[in-house]
Structures are given as C-alpha cells and as structure tokens.
Amino acid sequence: MSVKRPGIDTLAAISDYYGFELSFEELGEFQSAVAGSMAIYDRLDELADESLPVNYPRAELGYRPVGDDNPLNGWAWKCSVPGADEGPLVGRTVALKDNIALAGIPMMNGSPIMEGFVPREDATVVTRLLDAGAHIIGKTAVPAFCFDGGGCTGYPEPQPVNPHDHGRLAGASSNGSAVVVTNGEVDMALGGDQGGSIRLPASWSGCYGIKGTHGLVPYTGIFPIELTLDHVGPMARTAEDCALMLEVLAGPDGLDPRQYDVRTAKYTESLSEDLIGLRIGILREGFGIDGVSEPDVDAAVKEAVSVLEKAGARASEVSVPMHSDGLALWSAIAFEGATELMVRGDGYGTNWRGHYSTQLMDFYGRARRARGHDFSDTVKMTVLAGHYMSEQYNRHYYGKAQNIGRRLARGYDNALQEYDLLIMPTTAMKAVSRPADKHLTSTLAGALGNLHNTAPFDVSGHPAMSVPVGFSEGLPVGMQLVGRRWDESTLLKVAHAYQVAVG
Fold first, then answer.
1. Contact 219, 229 (CB under 8 A)
2. In terms of Cα–Cα distance, which of 33, 60, 97 is closest to 233?
3. Is 2 part of a structural domain of the chain?
4. 262 and 190, same structural domain?
5. Does any domain span residue 29?
6. Same domain, yes or no, for 31 and 128?
C-alpha cells in the first residue's frame, strides 16, 4: 500500500487554514518536498502494527437481543466468552460497557456511526477479567459516544429504561450496565466515567459503582473521550463485588498514559474493618444546590450518615467552596478536550505514549467524516462549542480550567487531611422523566443536567463511589463517598458497612 500524495489544491487549503500565505509557485515547491517525505509512510506500511492480545476463545459470538430477551433494553449485544478455569471471578457473569473492545464482538458505542465495527483485540480490562475466571456474557447499551449524563441519546432504539420506573432515565452513559446489574441479569459490569457515568446510573438505578483514582484501572482498548477525564470501573449489587472486581482490574499495564505512580491494595481485606473513629466530612456545597437539589434526596443521604455514625463514625460539616465551580471547570475541559481527542483526533489524537487502536481509528475516522450528521445533539453541541473556543481563544480556557482544576483538587485534599472521606448526594435529584420530545433543549436538559456532584471528581481525579441508600417516591437515592487518592479501600469499607447495617 502506498500513501496517497497530496495535490496542490489540498496543500493550498491547508496553507489557508494556517495562514501561511504561500504563492502558487511556493506551493509547487512544497508539494514536491511533502511528496518526498511520504516515503517514510510507505515503509511504515511494510511494518507490522502492534495489537492487544486475545487469549481466550469466543464460545459464542452472539446476537443483538430484542423484546423479552432484553427486558429493560440494557443489552447492546449478548455473547459468551468464558475465562480461565480458576480465579477470583470464576462462576461470575460480567457485562462490558459497549465502548470497550472485545475481539470478535461488535462495538457501536451508542451511535449509528460505529455500526459495523468489530474489534480485533481485547481491552486490558477484558483480559484481566478473563484471567480471573469471569464469564463475559455481553455488551451493554450506551448513549451516543458515551457523552450523555442522562442516557437519552443512544442507538439503536429502544434505549435503557429505569428499572424502577420505565418512564424515567436510568442515568448516564453506563446506564445499560446499571440496568442489567440492578435487574439481576448479570453479576457485575464494567462502566466508564468521564463526568460521573459510573456513579450517575448507579444512583438513579440503585446499584453500587466506583470510579477509582484517575489511572487506577487501565483504559487501554476503550474508546476515549478526554485523557484527563477518562475512568473505568466496577458496578455491582454489593460493595463486596465492587471490591473484588476492582482487585482484578487495578494496576498499571504499561500502555496507558493516564497511569502514573499507581498504588493498589487488597480491597476485599478492608471490608471487615469497623468504622470506629472514622471521620466523615459532610460536604456543604454538595447539598441544597440552587434550582437542582431535591430535599428528599438531601435528607436520605443525611439519614444514611446517621447510620454510619451509629456504626462508630464521627461526622461533621465541611466546606470546599470551589466544589461549586467544579462543573464549570469540567465543562471547559470536556468541550475542548473531547472535541480535540474524541472527534478531531479520531478517538486517539497524538502526543502521548501508549497503545493506539489503529483499527478503530481507521474505521471511526472514515465513518465520522462520511456520517457527521449522525452525531447526537450532545456531541454536536460539544463540538460546536469546543471548536469555537479552541479557534477563537487559542485553547486559553482549556488550559486555564486544567490549571484551576489543580486548585479544586487541593481544596478536596485539604478537607481530606481533616476527614477520612467526604459525603454528599451522588445526584442532587432522583431519576428524571425521559424527555417527551427530541428537541435540542429537552435532550440537553436530560443529558447534561445532573453532573453537579460527580463531574468535579473527574477533574480532580479523586476516587468516588455511589452507594444506594434507599428510596424516595419509589426511586433510588445514591450517596457519594469521596476519598483520598489511592484510598479506594476506605470507600469500599464504608459502603460495605452501610450495606451490612441496613441489611
């Protein structure tokens, strides 16, 4: 295969974009120089690419379930991939969010743009699950490119429904994973979290979900959104299963630039510890958010704190004023960062060392250019805003948001010197009704209106977990636990203690 050399008209368009002001004669000279440089790409075509390993056979490639075979629309695909005969997850069934590469199994990432893509490699988390004896039985439905905090923009229809009220949203891009876990269709599932998409559906659907410290679990082989926001982690019906799954998943793989100085632990060993003397900071800014918080949600979380106090913890209020700016910082990072990486960068971008899924880049790069009209409204809005801000303001606000994000993180770190963990509602409100129409304002309200308490911790990178703490008006309420970096053990211990205390 030979790389196509650019014509003079193509170079003229590039020159105009960058303001080079090259004359026709100069363009001709550069055309020859550029064409000569292309020989290096001819040599690259002769060299074999690197690929992630596929160590376990696919027992059944499977099918797209419909009707009674998919009662809450949580599945994107059903299949059968058994893992090792021995290991901590033997006998456990696992579902994967459908932005995770599972060789031989279609991956749509919630969009018709990806229809027909079948990965040839297994993500690192897939290999670790199978090495631990898990049986992967399917991929779970997601909204379009996982860029949706409510779960209302996915493909194909019908989309996941809330297990407790089918007229309401199940919550965020891991909604399919939450639905099949909560409904008992699978033992545990993998979710992804860039703005809260493990914790949001756990809160609205009523299961446990934990986002570890940024970089704890390798993201290799998963469709990215924004390198500094990307997380992946467990969802299950118990804190114990989350801990067990996290033990299997955590640790560096040498291929993910998000992973630096990673520290892991035997998370299941912490579950037996008591809460005597544990210091809980009730985050003031996480409650009573103007125009957003529901009083019954705030009350349910405070009642859950009293349960922890009866178990030996000590709780008092703490303030981190910058928490209220966390969503603004996240938005500035997500708008420009996702535009650069997820869209203009064909999913992977440049300027980092690690594994690039070139098969995905090839497929998606061609597909998005041919089918850009099929992007969801949430992605279109993000790209329009992100591209404008990048071009108009020279990426100033992206850089400023990242800089201020360190200040936000320090605010949490300072509070966590005094307290062992912070507590607030996961979502300030219970699950909302599915938008009645497809109008832009309705879609954006359903998809991006619940991130206030979750998105800040994707910016700061702190571990965060949603714990179900009962129901109000027939809908689940989630309590969010936030800990020190690399201290997932404390979150899981507290979640387990609460679970035991309430039976």
1. no
2. 97
3. no
4. yes
5. yes
6. no
- Domain of residue 154: give its range: 60-502
Beta bridge partners, 479, equal 425, 467
For this structure, is 197 an active site residue? yes
Please report whether residue 52 resides in a domain: no
- C-alpha 308/C-alpha 367 separation (Å) is 51
Q: How many domains does the chain have?
A: 2
Give me the catalytic one of 97, 211, 430, 493: 97
Per the CB < 8 A criterion, the answer to whether 118 and 77 are in contact is no
Joined together, the tokens standing for residue 320 give 């981190």
Residue-wise pLDDT for 424-448, tens only, equals 999 999 999 998 887 888 777 776 7
Q: What are the start-end ranges of the H helices in 119-264?
A: 124-131, 175-182, 199-205, 239-249
Evaluate whether 211 touches 177 at the Cβ level (below 8 Å).
no
| Cβ–Cβ < 8 Å for 208, 236 | yes
* C-alpha Rg value of the chain to the nearest Å: 23
478-498 in b/e burial notation, b at 16+ Cβ within 10 A?
Answer: bbbbbbbbbbbbbbbbbbbbb
Residue 32 known to be catalytic: no
pTM over cut 0.90: yes
pLDDT, average across residues 88-107: 98
Same domain, 142 and 176: yes
Indicate whether 430 and 472 sit together in one domain. Answer: yes
Q: Are residues 138 and 36 in the same domain?
A: no
Contact between 324 and 290 (Cβ < 8 Å): no
Q: Which of 197, 270, 466, 489 is catalytic?
A: 197
- Nearest CA to 122 among 51, 191, 61, 182? 51
Q: Confidence band (pLDDT; 50, 70, 90) for 1?
A: low
Active site residue 97: yes
Tell me: do 209 and 357 sit in the same domain: yes
Cis omega (within 30 of 0) for bond into 158: yes
CATH of the domain at 444: 3.90.1300.10
Options 111, 173, 270, 390, the catalytic residue: 173
The predicted-structure confidence for 147-196, as pLDDT tens digits, reads as follows 887 788 899 999 999 999 999 999 989 999 999 999 999 999 999 999 99
In a domain, 53, yes or no: no
